[in-house]
Specification:
By secondary structure, the chain is of the alpha/beta class. The chain has three domains: 209 residues, Rossmann fold (3-Layer(aba) Sandwich), CATH 3.40.50; 96 residues, Magnesium chelatase subunit I, C-Terminal domain (Helicase, Ruva Protein, domain 3, Orthogonal Bundle), CATH 1.10.8.80; 128 residues, no CATH class. It contains 14 helices and 13 strands. The longest helix has 19 residues.
Length: 484
């Protein structure tokens, strides 16, 4: 199914609102920006969150803060061994005055439902959440009752004091989009928590937006562009868990769908209308870890799902561009792709692919010599000879590609296969070759302002630090590069 490209202004608006929500929730949940970002990802991807951690680290506070920030209705269900399914979903009661049956909704009818200590209820009661988590409706006496939208279940469970608890079955674990752990705060953050504990409460948060806007943001996340090669990449990541020697049950197809949905929302939060391989890498552990069942031997030897997922990610080749001229990958692990706009820039040193730029300075381009000036590759001249590749000089000849020389001719990019001996990229759906994994319509990253308002900014690598390029003598910064 082909979807219309998301307008850049809508992408910026989405990223701005998400950043404001994260900042607002972060005033209550201190020192946990990654956890807050992943919780927002689940909200926009129509998923659910399972928080597993020791008591008192802010699991319930996170859910309440999310509800306050979006002006949503929240309900809390304290799961106990004597809790009944009707206590969760609701019950039909005979009204003597009207001489008919009336449905009384349970606490599950809210925008954000906190299922506190879900593993302390019986499996029969736990199963009461299965339908509403998947179908977003409750069926009582054969009559379906839809729950409010947006709808998010935040379930908590403690890994300690396991007496009298019931382990969640795999069928229910698979319903949760992500499994998170808040963890203990750092010393500085814990001191700040103590300093403002009296006046810091989720109930005092001013809303950033409303549930209607969140609903529109959910629809927008469903239109994010994912290249066909990335769909294949997601399937191969799941297959690597199924074929792993230490895994008894690998990731299901529902888990692969969850990964792509989460990556779409995560990309928009980062200010992009398209998905990159780095998005999958950042989400593999929270989305896949609770879906992997280790073998008995692996459990005895202390192997963790995280270690298995690290092996799976290393075993699957990252998809790289393969059609048409385009930029070369940057150094480092993963596909650190350089995005540069194909239009001419102003004056100064112009680092971009693959055409000479304007006047006023030497035209540098990745892995390709240009007349009229020293032919150093993008963003980093090296002494000792012309045509050194970016970030890693290679001896033995000119025009070596980044991170790995290839046989077959100069200017061959690494580390994936390319057609015709030259660096290539996916063409955009609009038909304009250019930046790798661009948004539909052919707009490259360098030409778009970032959510922070700085035009031409590069998207940061998975570590969060963009590969900045020093400005040229003419005062115009080189084209940004993206590292893995």
């Amino acid at each position: 199914m082909t979807t219309e490209p998301i307008p850049p202004q809508h992408v910026r608006t989405f990223a701005d609102i998400a950043a404001q929500l994260a900042a607002r929730v972060g005033t209550v949940v201190l020192g946990k920006p990654d956890v807050v970002r992943l919780a927002l990802t689940a909200l926009f991807a129509q998923g659910h969150v399972l928080l597993e951690d020791v008591p008192g680290v802010g699991k319930t506070t996170l859910a309440r803060a999310l509800a306050s920030a979006v002006r949503g209705q929240w309900r809390r269900i304290q799961f106990t061994p004597d809790l009944l399914p009707s206590d969760v979903s609701g019950v039909t009661i005979f009204n003597q005055a009207s001489r008919g049956f009336e449905f009384h909704p349970g606490p599950v009818f809210a925008n954000i439902v906190i299922a506190d200590e879900i593993n302390r209820a019986s499996p029969k009661t736990q199963s009461a959440l299965l339908e509403v988590m998947e179908e977003r409706r409750v069926t009582v006496d054969g009559v379906p009752h839809p729950v409010p939208q947006p709808f998010l279940v935040v379930a908590t469970q403690n890994p300690v004091e396991m007496d009298g608890t019931y382990r969640l079955p795999e069928a229910q674990l698979d319903r949760f989009l992500v499994k998170l752990s808040v963890g203990y705060p750092s010393e500085e953050v814990e001191v700040e928590v103590l300093r403002g504990a009296a006046g810091r409460s989720p109930d005092t948060l001013d809303p950033v937006t409303d549930t209607a806007t969140v609903g529109e943001m959910v629809k927008l996340a469903q239109r994010v562009h994912i290249a066909d090669a990335l769909y294949t990449y997601a399937v191969r990541l799941a297959a690597a868990t199924r074929n792993h020697a230490q895994v008894r049950v690998g990731v299901s197809p529902r888990g692969v769908i969850a990964l792509t949905r989460a990556a779409s929302a995560y990309a928009l939060i980062q200010g992009r209308g398209y998905v990159l391989p780095e998005d999958f890498k950042a989400l593999v552990e929270p989305v896949f870890a609770h879906r992997v069942l280790l073998s008995a031997d692996a459990q005895l030897r202390g192997v963790t799902p995280t270690e298995v997922l690290d092996d799976a990610v290393r075993s699957v080749a990252v998809p790289l561009p393969a059609n048409g001229p385009g930029p070369t990958p940057g150094p480092g692990p993963g596909p650190g792709l350089e995005h540069a706009a194909p239009s001419a820039r102003g004056t100064g040193r112009d680092h971009a692919a693959p055409s000479p730029r304007g006047t006023g300075g030497s035209d540098h381009a990745a892995a390709s010599p240009y007349p009229g000036g020293p032919d150093h590759a993008a963003a980093s001249p090296y002494p000792g000879g012309p045509d050194r590749a970016a970030a890693s000089p290679y001896a033995g000849g000119p025009d070596r590609a980044v991170a790995s020389p290839h046989v077959g001719g100069p200017g061959v990019a690494a580390p994936g296969p390319y057609a015709n001996g030259a660096a290539t990229s996916y063409p955009t759906p609009g038909g304009v070759p250019g930046a790798t994994y661009p948004a539909p319509g052919g707009m490259s990253d360098a030409a778009r302002p970032m959510p922070g308002g700085v035009p031409g900014g590069s998207y940061p690598a998975s570590g969060g630090v963009p590969d900045a390029v020093p400005p040229a003598a003419g005062g115009v910064a080189d084209a940004p590069r993206v590292g893995a």
